[in-house]
Amino acid sequence: MTTAQQETTSSSERPAAVYRLWAADGALLYIGSSYTPEERAKAHSHTVWGHLVARRTDEWHPSRWRAYDEGAQAIAAEDPTHNVVGTPRHTGPAERGRVQREASEARWSVALAAIRTVASEGEARNAGGWAEVEYLEASGLMPGLAAKWRHAMEHGGTYNSRNMSLPRAVNGRLTWEMSMGEILAARRAEHLTDWGGSLPNPDRTERLGLRQPSPLDGPLTARRGGRRFSGRCPGACPGGAADAGGMSGLRLVVVSAPLPSGGRRVRAGGEILGLAFGARDVEEFLRRAGLEDVDVETSELIEWQGGGPDVWAPGP
Fold this sequence. Notes:
This protein has helices spanning about 5, 35-45, 65-80, 95-115, 120-140, 145-155, 160, 180-190, 200-205, 240-245, 280-290, and strands at about 15-25, 30-35, 55-60, 170, 175, 220-225, 225-230, 255, 265-270, 270-275, 300-305. It is α+β, with helices and mostly antiparallel strands.
Protein backbone atom coordinates (compact mmCIF):
# COMPACT_ATOMS: atom_id res chain seq x y z
CA MET A 1 0.00 0.00 0.00
CA THR A 2 1.38 3.40 -0.94
CA THR A 3 1.73 6.30 1.47
CA ALA A 4 -0.86 8.30 -0.52
CA GLN A 5 -3.42 5.50 -0.17
CA GLN A 6 -2.77 5.27 3.58
CA GLU A 7 -3.26 9.02 4.08
CA THR A 8 -6.81 8.84 2.66
CA THR A 9 -7.84 6.46 5.48
CA SER A 10 -8.54 7.48 9.11
CA SER A 11 -5.80 6.63 11.60
CA SER A 12 -8.01 4.07 13.39
CA GLU A 13 -8.44 2.12 10.15
CA ARG A 14 -5.02 2.54 8.57
CA PRO A 15 -2.98 -0.64 8.22
CA ALA A 16 0.41 -0.69 9.93
CA ALA A 17 3.29 -3.10 9.76
CA VAL A 18 5.51 -4.93 12.20
CA TYR A 19 8.89 -4.74 10.48
CA ARG A 20 12.01 -6.78 11.15
CA LEU A 21 15.55 -5.76 10.22
CA TRP A 22 17.96 -8.63 9.54
CA ALA A 23 21.74 -8.93 9.24
CA ALA A 24 23.36 -10.74 6.32
CA ASP A 25 24.05 -13.78 8.54
CA GLY A 26 20.37 -14.06 9.48
CA ALA A 27 20.64 -12.42 12.90
CA LEU A 28 17.55 -10.43 13.92
CA LEU A 29 18.67 -6.89 14.62
CA TYR A 30 15.49 -4.96 15.37
CA ILE A 31 11.68 -5.18 15.47
CA GLY A 32 9.45 -2.13 15.18
CA SER A 33 6.01 -1.04 14.03
CA SER A 34 5.07 1.77 11.70
CA TYR A 35 2.57 2.95 9.09
CA THR A 36 5.54 3.41 6.76
CA PRO A 37 8.18 0.78 7.56
CA GLU A 38 10.32 1.77 4.59
CA GLU A 39 10.76 5.30 5.97
CA ARG A 40 11.35 4.02 9.50
CA ALA A 41 14.03 1.65 8.21
CA LYS A 42 15.81 4.61 6.59
CA ALA A 43 15.96 6.30 10.00
CA HIS A 44 17.60 3.20 11.50
CA SER A 45 20.33 3.42 8.86
CA HIS A 46 21.82 6.34 10.83
CA THR A 47 22.32 4.30 14.01
CA VAL A 48 25.67 2.77 14.96
CA TRP A 49 24.36 -0.64 13.87
CA GLY A 50 22.50 0.56 10.76
CA HIS A 51 25.26 -0.60 8.42
CA LEU A 52 24.59 -4.20 9.51
CA VAL A 53 21.08 -4.26 8.05
CA ALA A 54 20.91 -6.46 4.95
CA ARG A 55 17.15 -6.86 4.48
CA ARG A 56 13.73 -5.99 5.91
CA THR A 57 10.53 -8.04 6.24
CA ASP A 58 7.08 -6.54 6.88
CA GLU A 59 4.05 -8.11 8.57
CA TRP A 60 0.93 -6.00 7.98
CA HIS A 61 -1.94 -5.57 10.47
CA PRO A 62 -5.28 -3.74 10.15
CA SER A 63 -4.45 -0.98 12.65
CA ARG A 64 -1.54 0.74 14.34
CA TRP A 65 -2.52 -0.52 17.79
CA ARG A 66 -2.77 -4.10 16.55
CA ALA A 67 0.67 -3.77 14.97
CA TYR A 68 2.06 -2.27 18.19
CA ASP A 69 0.70 -5.15 20.30
CA GLU A 70 1.99 -7.77 17.88
CA GLY A 71 5.36 -6.05 17.73
CA ALA A 72 5.66 -5.96 21.54
CA GLN A 73 4.92 -9.69 21.74
CA ALA A 74 7.45 -10.39 18.98
CA ILE A 75 10.16 -8.38 20.77
CA ALA A 76 9.60 -10.30 24.02
CA ALA A 77 9.62 -13.65 22.22
CA GLU A 78 12.41 -13.12 19.67
CA ASP A 79 14.73 -10.73 21.64
CA PRO A 80 16.26 -8.74 18.74
CA THR A 81 19.83 -7.62 19.31
CA HIS A 82 19.23 -3.86 19.26
CA ASN A 83 15.81 -3.51 20.86
CA VAL A 84 15.83 -2.37 24.47
CA VAL A 85 12.22 -1.63 25.51
CA GLY A 86 10.38 -4.89 26.06
CA THR A 87 13.55 -6.97 26.57
CA PRO A 88 15.43 -8.05 29.71
CA ARG A 89 17.93 -5.28 28.89
CA HIS A 90 15.35 -2.56 29.59
CA THR A 91 16.00 -0.90 32.94
CA GLY A 92 14.78 2.18 34.73
CA PRO A 93 16.62 5.52 34.83
CA ALA A 94 18.03 4.85 38.31
CA GLU A 95 19.63 1.56 37.26
CA ARG A 96 21.02 3.03 34.05
CA GLY A 97 22.41 5.97 35.99
CA ARG A 98 24.11 3.64 38.47
CA VAL A 99 25.77 1.64 35.70
CA GLN A 100 26.98 4.77 33.93
CA ARG A 101 28.48 6.12 37.18
CA GLU A 102 30.26 2.82 37.78
CA ALA A 103 31.53 2.83 34.19
CA SER A 104 32.84 6.37 34.73
CA GLU A 105 34.65 5.29 37.89
CA ALA A 106 36.19 2.40 35.95
CA ARG A 107 37.46 4.93 33.38
CA TRP A 108 39.04 7.11 36.06
CA SER A 109 40.53 4.19 38.00
CA VAL A 110 42.25 2.75 34.92
CA ALA A 111 43.41 6.16 33.67
CA LEU A 112 44.92 7.09 37.05
CA ALA A 113 46.59 3.68 37.33
CA ALA A 114 48.15 4.33 33.92
CA ILE A 115 49.36 7.77 35.05
CA ARG A 116 51.04 6.17 38.07
CA THR A 117 53.06 3.99 35.68
CA VAL A 118 54.29 7.12 33.86
CA ALA A 119 51.99 6.63 30.86
CA SER A 120 51.33 9.72 28.78
CA GLU A 121 48.02 11.56 29.18
CA GLY A 122 46.93 10.28 25.77
CA GLU A 123 47.68 6.68 26.70
CA ALA A 124 45.88 7.07 30.03
CA ARG A 125 42.80 8.60 28.40
CA ASN A 126 42.70 5.80 25.85
CA ALA A 127 43.04 3.08 28.50
CA GLY A 128 40.35 4.69 30.65
CA GLY A 129 37.99 5.15 27.70
CA TRP A 130 38.21 1.48 26.76
CA ALA A 131 37.65 0.45 30.40
CA GLU A 132 34.44 2.51 30.45
CA VAL A 133 33.20 0.94 27.20
CA GLU A 134 34.00 -2.59 28.32
CA TYR A 135 32.28 -2.07 31.69
CA LEU A 136 29.15 -0.81 29.93
CA GLU A 137 29.22 -3.73 27.49
CA ALA A 138 29.64 -6.24 30.32
CA SER A 139 26.56 -4.84 32.10
CA GLY A 140 24.40 -5.71 29.08
CA LEU A 141 21.94 -2.97 30.06
CA MET A 142 22.56 -0.32 27.39
CA PRO A 143 23.84 -2.02 24.25
CA GLY A 144 23.03 0.97 22.06
CA LEU A 145 25.07 3.37 24.18
CA ALA A 146 27.86 0.81 24.52
CA ALA A 147 28.00 0.40 20.73
CA LYS A 148 28.05 4.19 20.27
CA TRP A 149 30.94 4.60 22.70
CA ARG A 150 32.86 1.70 21.18
CA HIS A 151 32.51 3.33 17.77
CA ALA A 152 33.79 6.62 19.23
CA MET A 153 36.79 4.90 20.84
CA GLU A 154 37.66 3.30 17.53
CA HIS A 155 37.68 6.78 15.95
CA GLY A 156 39.68 8.84 18.43
CA GLY A 157 37.93 8.51 21.79
CA THR A 158 34.66 9.33 23.51
CA TYR A 159 33.85 12.85 24.70
CA ASN A 160 34.42 11.64 28.27
CA SER A 161 37.84 10.15 27.59
CA ARG A 162 39.12 13.06 25.48
CA ASN A 163 38.20 15.67 28.10
CA MET A 164 39.64 14.10 31.24
CA SER A 165 41.73 16.58 33.23
CA LEU A 166 44.39 14.28 34.63
CA PRO A 167 47.04 14.76 37.31
CA ARG A 168 50.68 13.81 37.00
CA ALA A 169 52.64 11.26 38.99
CA VAL A 170 55.95 11.66 40.80
CA ASN A 171 57.52 8.41 42.00
CA GLY A 172 54.17 6.65 41.76
CA ARG A 173 52.21 9.31 43.66
CA LEU A 174 49.59 11.43 41.98
CA THR A 175 49.78 15.20 42.31
CA TRP A 176 46.18 14.99 43.56
CA GLU A 177 47.54 13.13 46.60
CA MET A 178 50.43 15.50 47.26
CA SER A 179 50.51 18.51 49.54
CA MET A 180 51.44 21.91 48.21
CA GLY A 181 54.92 21.67 49.72
CA GLU A 182 55.50 18.35 47.97
CA ILE A 183 54.34 19.80 44.65
CA LEU A 184 56.67 22.75 45.07
CA ALA A 185 59.57 20.43 45.83
CA ALA A 186 58.78 18.34 42.75
CA ARG A 187 58.71 21.46 40.58
CA ARG A 188 62.05 22.59 41.94
CA ALA A 189 63.42 19.15 41.05
CA GLU A 190 61.98 19.71 37.55
CA HIS A 191 59.59 16.75 37.77
CA LEU A 192 56.56 18.91 36.93
CA THR A 193 58.00 21.54 34.64
CA ASP A 194 55.23 21.31 32.01
CA TRP A 195 52.29 20.53 34.29
CA GLY A 196 49.44 23.04 34.25
CA GLY A 197 48.16 22.42 37.77
CA SER A 198 45.09 20.16 37.33
CA LEU A 199 43.13 20.12 40.59
CA PRO A 200 41.04 17.17 41.82
CA ASN A 201 37.27 16.91 42.07
CA PRO A 202 36.77 16.23 45.80
CA ASP A 203 33.77 13.93 45.27
CA ARG A 204 35.58 11.89 42.61
CA THR A 205 38.76 11.46 44.64
CA GLU A 206 36.66 10.37 47.61
CA ARG A 207 34.83 7.75 45.52
CA LEU A 208 38.12 6.48 44.09
CA GLY A 209 39.66 6.22 47.55
CA LEU A 210 42.48 8.72 46.95
CA ARG A 211 44.10 10.49 49.88
CA GLN A 212 42.98 14.11 49.81
CA PRO A 213 45.39 16.49 51.48
CA SER A 214 44.51 20.13 51.73
CA PRO A 215 45.79 22.01 48.67
CA LEU A 216 47.69 24.26 51.08
CA ASP A 217 50.20 23.06 53.65
CA GLY A 218 48.77 24.01 57.00
CA PRO A 219 45.38 24.17 58.72
CA LEU A 220 42.38 24.68 56.48
CA THR A 221 38.78 25.11 57.47
CA ALA A 222 36.19 25.45 54.72
CA ARG A 223 32.56 24.86 53.91
CA ARG A 224 31.42 22.42 51.25
CA GLY A 225 27.98 21.00 50.59
CA GLY A 226 26.43 22.79 53.57
CA ARG A 227 28.77 21.28 56.20
CA ARG A 228 32.02 22.44 57.74
CA PHE A 229 35.13 20.35 57.73
CA SER A 230 38.76 20.97 58.53
CA GLY A 231 42.06 19.30 57.83
CA ARG A 232 45.80 19.71 58.11
CA CYS A 233 48.21 18.48 55.49
CA PRO A 234 51.10 16.34 56.70
CA GLY A 235 54.57 17.81 56.50
CA ALA A 236 55.97 21.25 57.15
CA CYS A 237 54.30 24.38 55.89
CA PRO A 238 56.13 26.08 53.03
CA GLY A 239 56.22 29.28 55.04
CA GLY A 240 55.13 32.14 52.86
CA ALA A 241 55.77 34.29 49.86
CA ALA A 242 59.13 32.82 48.95
CA ASP A 243 57.57 29.43 48.35
CA ALA A 244 54.52 30.94 46.70
CA GLY A 245 56.72 32.86 44.30
CA GLY A 246 58.33 29.61 43.21
CA MET A 247 55.12 28.31 41.72
CA SER A 248 56.18 29.32 38.20
CA GLY A 249 52.70 29.33 36.66
CA LEU A 250 51.08 26.72 38.98
CA ARG A 251 48.05 28.45 40.55
CA LEU A 252 46.31 26.60 43.35
CA VAL A 253 44.21 29.49 44.68
CA VAL A 254 41.40 30.86 42.50
CA VAL A 255 39.51 34.08 43.15
CA SER A 256 36.27 33.98 41.17
CA ALA A 257 34.67 36.82 39.26
CA PRO A 258 32.57 39.22 41.39
CA LEU A 259 29.15 37.80 42.26
CA PRO A 260 25.98 39.78 41.46
CA SER A 261 25.33 40.06 45.19
CA GLY A 262 28.89 41.28 45.81
CA GLY A 263 32.12 39.65 46.88
CA ARG A 264 34.34 37.03 45.22
CA ARG A 265 34.65 33.38 46.23
CA VAL A 266 38.14 32.19 47.08
CA ARG A 267 38.82 28.51 46.36
CA ALA A 268 41.79 26.20 46.75
CA GLY A 269 41.68 22.77 45.15
CA GLY A 270 37.89 22.84 44.87
CA GLU A 271 37.45 23.86 48.54
CA ILE A 272 35.89 27.23 49.34
CA LEU A 273 38.06 29.26 51.69
CA GLY A 274 35.53 32.06 52.00
CA LEU A 275 33.81 35.03 50.38
CA ALA A 276 36.17 37.99 50.02
CA PHE A 277 35.12 41.61 49.70
CA GLY A 278 38.62 42.97 49.31
CA ALA A 279 42.26 41.98 48.89
CA ARG A 280 42.73 41.96 52.67
CA ASP A 281 40.13 39.21 52.96
CA VAL A 282 42.11 37.10 50.50
CA GLU A 283 45.26 37.68 52.55
CA GLU A 284 43.42 36.61 55.69
CA PHE A 285 42.12 33.40 54.09
CA LEU A 286 45.65 32.50 53.01
CA ARG A 287 47.03 33.34 56.45
CA ARG A 288 44.50 30.98 58.06
CA ALA A 289 45.56 28.33 55.55
CA GLY A 290 49.18 28.66 56.65
CA LEU A 291 50.50 31.03 53.97
CA GLU A 292 51.51 34.34 55.49
CA ASP A 293 53.04 37.43 53.91
CA VAL A 294 51.75 36.57 50.43
CA ASP A 295 51.50 39.58 48.11
CA VAL A 296 48.05 38.80 46.71
CA GLU A 297 48.43 41.36 43.92
CA THR A 298 51.54 39.80 42.38
CA SER A 299 51.79 36.22 43.65
CA GLU A 300 51.78 33.50 40.98
CA LEU A 301 49.96 31.30 43.49
CA ILE A 302 46.69 33.14 42.78
CA GLU A 303 44.53 33.14 39.67
CA TRP A 304 42.18 36.13 39.41
CA GLN A 305 39.10 35.48 37.30
CA GLY A 306 36.93 38.26 35.92
CA GLY A 307 39.23 41.05 37.04
CA GLY A 308 42.31 41.67 39.13
CA PRO A 309 42.66 42.42 42.85
CA ASP A 310 41.18 45.89 42.38
CA VAL A 311 37.83 44.65 41.00
CA TRP A 312 35.19 43.79 43.60
CA ALA A 313 31.89 44.95 42.11
CA PRO A 314 30.04 42.96 39.40
CA GLY A 315 30.23 44.30 35.87
CA PRO A 316 27.31 46.08 34.19
